[in-house]
Every structure is written in structure tokens, then in C-alpha cells.
Amino acid sequence: MSEGPDTRSCIVVGAGISGLLAASELQRAGWDVTVLDEASGVGGRMATRRLGEGSFDHGAQFFTVRSERFANLVDDWLAAGVAAEWTRGFADAQGRQNEDGHPRYRGARGMASIPEYISRGLGVRTGERVVRVDAHESGWEVACDSGLRVEGDVLVIAAPVPRALDLASSGSYTLPDEARRRLEAISYDPCLALMALLDGPSGVPEPGGIQIKDEPLDWVCDNQRKGISEAPGVTIHAGPRWSRSHFEDDEAEITRRLISFASDQLGTDLASKVLTISLARWPYSWVTNSHPEPCLIASEDPPLLFCGDAFGQPKVEGAALSGLAAADHLLGRDT
Ligand SMILES: Cc1cc2nc3c(=O)[nH]c(=O)nc-3n(C[C@H](O)[C@H](O)[C@H](O)COP(=O)(O)OP(=O)(O)OC[C@H]3O[C@@H](n4cnc5c(N)ncnc54)[C@H](O)[C@@H]3O)c2cc1C
Hints:
The chain has helices at residues 17-28, 68-79, 113-119, 161-168, 177-184, 223-226, 240-246, 251-266, 315-330, and strands spanning 9-13, 32-37, 48-51, 54-57, 83-87, 104-107, 124-126, 130-136, 139-144, 149-152, 154-157, 187-198, 209-211, 217-222, 233-238, 274-289, 296-300, 303-306. The radius of gyration is 20 Å and the shape is globular. Helix 1 packs parallel to helix 3 and helix 1 packs parallel to helix 9 (315-330). A 6-stranded mixed β-sheet has the order 7-2-1-11-18-17. Strands 13-14-15-12-16 form a 5-stranded antiparallel β-sheet. Helix content is 27%, strand content 31%. The structure holds flavin-adenine dinucleotide (FAD). The site of flavin-adenine dinucleotide has 36 residues, from helix 1, strand 2, helix 4, strand 12 and strand 16.
């Protein structure tokens, strides 16, 4: 498992911002780290998709900065040219500008620019769905549906918690009752996210995003106005209640209704401008019930930690700090 007496090895399941930052801290400290993700690229919910000439952020849309530790990371991303300040406030549901002076950041070419940058130089294997986890006397073995098996001294699970719980019980390992109880208390809202490439302007006012925070719509964004897309195209997020009640509906029906809601919101006929669409169904978008600590240490022997946006603070910043907290614990840097 480990290469030498001082080298510890770690398997990280999940290449979202949380898992990637945990991995990068451990690797910087000399650990041998393997990150596994089932998706074809890194970033998890910091997701950017191409549709024709358009680029669309369809998961996280922007992030804010509250803590000094996260601010230092963001400064690095800004200096590397992978993040940019987008705006200091969005239009509200009535289209009124709502500046409050706090910067909102985006990825330079979409949100995925940031996890792609963090993952450089890390041992990340995408397209690997972890389906089984077993504990041995001296560590962990995970198996992927491709047949790949990876061993490590330490296991960090940085997947959305319902998925993480399934994994933790997929093999011979028995999760301690207390950890299971805490993980089972965590919940998320779903989100239906529609991307529509347009052949004309969307009608979304400056700075390119409307924070509606209501039902049936939560958010409408023009990715061209946001500065990440050559072609005009909108991302439409349904509200949590509408997403939950229509999550399994037929794609054509969801598309028709979301385009109609967004047309009403923008006062324009979006349907006549749509060139092509893509729908993302996020079963876990925002955390509705979180764990108070920035990560959960389920076992010390062999070490098993859970991290992500469900631990401590939510959103991109919370997920980032959670990954760092998991690495801090493993490196003995707990404060
Ligand atoms: C629609 C939507 C809008 C959002 N808007 C915002 C916003 O505007 N601002 C904000 O700050 N936050 C926003 N968020 C939340 C933000 O995206 C998340 O809090 C953050 O990205 C979570 O990061 P994470 O690393 O914890 O998890 P994730 O990004 O979910 O990463 C987990 C990774 O685990 C992988 N995985 C899961 N199971 C397995 C398995 N069995 N094997 C291998 N890999 C596995 C997944 O593929 C994924 O890549 C939004 C989220 C969504 C979905």
C-alpha cells in the first residue's frame, strides 16, 4: 500500500472541489493519493457543459468568499487566471439591479475551470465509479465497476452523502452506528437545470443572472453575458419544490414548461429562439440539513473520513473548507 515508511497512501472518492482540495493538500505533504470519480471530467457540481458554440454552467453558478482561508485559495485562482470576479449583485425577480458590494466569482471559462486547475498534477482517474469498499487490517480497498481495484491506508469519501452512505455499506465494512446516524440526518434539495442554446439575445439583464429564489424558478442566467460562452444561451434552474415534484417527468415536458416559465420571467418568447437544449437532473444540489463539523471522522483505524458541502458550511466555499479540514485532520493539523 504505502511506498515507504513515511509515505501514506489515500484513496479519495469524488473529484469535486472538496475531494480535489483534500487530495492536493495530502499530495503536497508527500502522500500518495489516488482520486476516483465516476464522471468523465473533474468538478462534480462545479460543472460546465458545451452545447454547439455555447458553454453552460449548469451546477454551481458563482461563489462568494467569507473566510480568510478560502480567500487565499481564490486569490491563487484569480492570479492563475482560472477564476474571475463576475459581479457584486444580481438582478432580482423584477429585473432590478441589486448590488451589495460583495464580489461573486465565476470560473474563467465556466465553473469547471477551477477544479480542472486544482486537479493538475494530481493522480485523478475519471470514468471510474466506485462500487465497493472493503476495510482490511491495515487499510482500504475500493473496487470500481470497470474492474479497477485501488488500495490505500486512508479512505476519504467526498461524494454527496446518500451516495457515500451506500458506498460505505457496499462491502464487508460496517460503519459505526454514530457515524451512520449523523450521515443519515443529512439531506439535500434536488434541482432540474435546463440549458438552452439560443439564436438571439435572451433578455436576461446585466450582469447576466436573475436571482429569483422562488417557485417554479430559482435562477435564470445568460452564459454569454456572464462571460463564459461565445454563443447566447441560458441556464434555467427550477426551484427545489418544482424540481422535486417533476424530477422524474419526461424531458420534453420539463423543457417545455421551464422554457415557458423563463419566457414569462424575461418577457420574451424564448421557445422561438431555442436551437438545442440539454437537461441536467441534480438529485443533490443544495444541502438542507448539514453536519455541523467541517468533516466527519467515521473511523481512525483504518482512517475513514467524509467531507463535502454537507459538512460545516454549505456551497462551494463550504465544500472547499471541508476538503481542507479532512486533510488537516489526516496531517495532524487540527486546531
Ligand atoms: C444546480 C446547482 C446550483 C448550485 N449553485 C451554487 C451556487 O451558485 N453557488 C455555490 O456556492 N454553490 C452552488 N451549488 C452547490 C455547489 O455546487 C456544491 O456545494 C459544491 O460544488 C459541492 O462540492 P463537493 O466536492 O462537496 O461535491 P460534488 O461537487 O458533488 O463532488 C462529488 C463527486 O463525487 C463523485 N462521485 C459520487 N459517487 C461516486 C462513486 N460511487 N464513484 C466515483 N465518484 C463518485 C461525483 O461524480 C462528483 O464528481 C449548486 C449546486 C447545484 C447542483
